[in-house]
Structures are given as structure tokens and as C-alpha cells.
Amino acid sequence: MSDSLFTKEDVQSRITFKTQRKYAESKANQITPYPNLNQIYDAIDVSQWNLRKKDVIQLEQTTEENQIILNAHILPIIEKYRKDGYEICFISDMYLSSFFLKGVLKKFKLCNDNDSIYVSCECKATKNDGTLYDYIRNERKVKYKNWVHFGDNKISDFQIPQKKGIQAYWYTYTNFTEHEKNWLRNASFYNHKNEIELYAGLTRAVRLAQPKDSKTTLAADLVAPLYIPYVYFTLVESQQRKINQIYFLARDGHILFQIAKQFQSIFPDISLHYLKISRRAIYPCYFYDGSYEEFLWILKRADGHEIGSALFHIGIDWDQLPDSKHVRFHKEQLLNSESIAELADYLSRNFCKEIVKKAESSRNNLLAYLNQENFLQAPHKAIVDLGWEGSVRICLNKILKKENFSQTYAFYWGYSNRVIHSKNNNVSFFRYEDSRNQPHAAEVMEHYVSANSSGSAMEYKRINNSVIPIETKQRDCLTEIQLINEGISCQIAKEYLSTINNKDANRDIFLCCGYRTLNDTLEFPNSDEAKIFSLIKADDFEKTYYIAEKLRFKDFITLFIWGHTFYPKWKEAAMSLTLKKKAKLVMKFAEITSSSKFMEIIRWVLKKISRFFL
User: Fold this and answer.
1) What is d(CA 119, CA 96) in angstroms, rounded to the nearest whole number?
2) Label partner for 275 (CA 20 to 30 A): which of 182, 369, 431, 595?
3) Residue partners of 555: CB distance under 8 A and separation at least 6
4) Where are the alpha helices (DSSP H) in 36-165?
5) 409-414 and 427-429 strand pairing
6) Hey, what CATH topology would domain 72-174 get?
7) pLDDT tens-digit profile of 467-511?
8) Cross-strand partners of 409
9) What is the pTM of this model?
10) Is residue 532 within 8 Å of 526, Cβ to Cβ?
């Protein structure tokens, strides 16, 4: 309502109106129990803002109607009882009139002309204390035993009518999820409590409009509150920086691109694009002189990975090395700081000319693709990406600078403390740091939250008059998750601006809803969430593995003795996937056993035995 009543600059009036409207209901209730909307506004002097009470009441009713989203799951229940000959009545503890509510219900085809509406402000009774049920019984001359009631409030819709003998059903599917309840509980710790509560209601409404499914629930509770605030932040910052071309980088940026399109009408001067660029496609373009420093920088990005995979990512096949069968490295060797320096030295001395020639060819195709997408010509542009370090951004700007094109501004969400900072202040970071959860954050963000069935761009080829990104094999297993994540996020994004009006509110929603849910999920996902993660394969430098896997027998043994699993895996997700509701209990038991004196002796004995055999 504040958006319609006051300008964005009139912050004082916005705050004052919200505060007075919030407390007007309790003030009116002290004068007249069960007040209606007109009596509530009698408790506010709206003339202080040069407003008329009649106009403000009409605006509130219009706002209420526009924000209502149909719960489609209740429709067949109503129709069943209607066909069975039951009289249908709608009852509510509400300050809006029965005439208004009937009009809204009829709009959604929930209510017929001969259905009755009972509201507390007209009946002067409430469901919460049971008096509204008594009022209806006396007016309609109905016996409680012949009354069937559906509602989503455990007390007023279930416990109280049950005590009266009504056949009551607690319709729990309309309830908030555990994550949404956490948002509401923690909203009071943030400056924009009202906006967080509105966002929780919006999320619930969109979720309930879909078929009941754990994938839909996780998309609404995790994906949307993470990415919608990031996209909004990006667009607001772009507008302030006079950036009018935004390129979302594939594949992680596809969902961000779809969300941004929902805000297009609010930011009409910003043009949105999707650019197919990846590490695999841009690393081979990085080399200009084949120096030790160039090889060292690129190889550092592959720290901890096999040498063969690292070389493949920069466009070098192991067998192409001049003396690959005689070098002191082997293909499966894992890179570390020492071997990275040695390999960089070896390549700069023995493979310099070949890599520079290959890089030039790859780079020409990359530049042709960028030119085709109108990226090179755009003077006020930015890229949007997320990831571990931000190496694609660094590579791209190095190439643009070397080729005498204007460098691009960047919006980057780095979910680790290894994010590469910029020396020339051409990047806005949207990031958090949590060293406990970094590895799993990368897996969940890249491979679930940004789930994309398309292949990753490997290189660019000129075909006829076009430059085509050549992609890896499509991942069909992610199609359903991608459609759900993008669909739910876009639906919530459409209504998002009705819940916020500034960047600070956007940040609070991200911290209270998105960031908190991500941390809670990483700390210990429930069994439904773990099951979703178990469907997803992560890929990193040619290595593939499932995000979550069930525990094996060896894992249980090492868990109880050493406190960790035998196979490297996301322990908490594995526990939930294997043991479901008992997971936390078993985890606690494992913590106790692994720290006990007895297990300390067992570990000592096993260590001695292993040394004997070795």
C-alpha cells in the first residue's frame, strides 16, 4: 500500500503509515470488539498525509484482493461436498466484510451465490474462542455432529471445533514449511520484519498453487530466496551505474536470466542477454606469450585435480606433450602448489609455441562469438556469474584488454573465501563466507540451485555465417529439476516487488530467508532434501560424482570409531538419505562413541596393527 500512497523518497510517511496501521487494529478492538475495516481506520487520522479514509480503505481492499493466490487443492474438496448435498459456508476471523470476501471467492470460483459467508467483524464472534461456531449453529439450526469443517489453523480450525463435536479436519498442506517458520521466527531480528513476513506468505502461496512435491517445496524455500535477491541487487546496481546491457553467463546464469526477465518492466532501459561462456571454453584462449606466469595462474585454478584433467581444460591433450612418456609427472597425479610450479615451468619451456598458436585460434573464435552476441560493441555492459573464484571474469577481461576492447563490469557471487578480487574496482560482489560449508555450498549452488540440463560450452566453431558454441552432452536427468526451480522462482519473482521497496529490504530477505535456509540445508538436510540431492551428479575437471550418496557398511564403522565416513562424502546428507528421521540421533551417538576413551584405545590398536603389516 505504501508504494501506492507515497513516493519512494517519502520514507518518513511510509514508516509512519505502516506503524500506525499495524497498531490501529488493536486500538480499534479496545473501543469496539471485532472491529471492521472502517472502524480500524477510525483509529488512524489519514488526513495527516492529505488522504481520505474512503480512498485508503478502497486501496487496502484492492491490495488484499490482488495479493490473494488461489489454493487449488481445496477446490475438489468443496465440489465433493457440494455434490453430496452439503450446504457450503465460509467462515473467517476477519475485519473485511462478507460482501467483499464473497466477491473474491466467487472470482476464484470457490463460492456460489447461495453460499453463506460469516466473518467475525459482522457476527461479533470468533473461531478462536469458539463463539463463531455457536453463532452459526444457532442461526442455521444445525447440529454440530452434522457439521464438517476444514481449516489450516490447528487451534481455531481443528481443536476448538473438535471439542464442540464438529467433524474437523486440520488442512496441514496450507501450513508454512519448517524453513518458512524459521523465517517468521527470525524476522524480528531484521529491520524489514514486515517485508520478510510478506515474502514468507508469498512463497507459501506460490508453493500451494502447485501439486504437492518435495522438489517444488525445496525450490520455493531454497532456490527462490537465494537467487531473486541476487538478481534484484544486480538490476538496481546496474541502473545506478548506468549499465544498460547485462549478460548472464551459462550455465549457472540461466535461472538468473529467467528471473531477471520477470523484472524487465521495472528496468526497461536494461537489455538482458544470455552468453554461453565457461571455464572449459575460455581457459584455452588465455595464453598470449605462453609464459611461466600464464601457465602458473591457470594451473592454480586446478589445484587438487589430476594433471591430465587440468591440461585438458586448457586445451592440451596429455599425449600432445613433447615427451609425455618421459616427463616426471604422470597423468593421474594430483596437483599441489609444488607440482603446479614445476608443471608451469615445464610447459612454458617445452610447450610455449604450441599453446600460443592454439590459444590464438581459440581466441579468434571466442571473439567472433562475442561480436555476434553484440558483446564487444556494448560500451556500458556487465556480466553476471557465480562460482568458486571468478576465473572466467578475470580471463575475459584480460582478453578484452589485450584486444583493445572495453573491459566489462561484473556482478559476482563467490561462495568461498577464495574469490579473486579486482584491482581496478570493476566488480560488485554478492557473497558470504562460511568456511565450514564451502565445499558443499559449491556443489549445491552450482549443480542443484543452478541446475541446467544443457551441456557446457567447450569451444566455438564457425558454421556458415554463424559462430556456434560446441557443448558437452546434455544432462537430461536435470531437466525436471531445472524446470521446477526456474518455474517457481519466476512465479515468486513476478510478485516480489509487492513485498519490498528498497535494497535494504532485499538484503534482509536474502539473509533471513535465502542465506539462512542454505546454511540450515548444508548443516543437515532433511531426508526429502537429501533424496533430491542424491539425484544430481556434480562435475568438476572431468570428475563426476553424486552430491549425496547413502552410507555403506564401512562408513558406519569409521563413523563410530573415527567420527567421519570411510568414503569422502557429504556426511550429513548421507545420514539423512540412509537413516531418514533417525539420522540426527545416530549422528549424535557417533559423536559420543568416536570421542570415548574406548574408541581411542581401538584407534591406537588399529594403528599398531596397520604399522605391523606395512
Assistant:
1) 8
2) 431
3) 565, 566, 567, 569, 574
4) 37-42, 53-67, 75-83, 98-107, 120-123, 131-140, 160-163
5) parallel
6) Rossmann fold (3.40.50)
7) 999 998 888 888 999 999 999 999 999 989 877 878 899 999 999
8) 382
9) 0.82
10) no
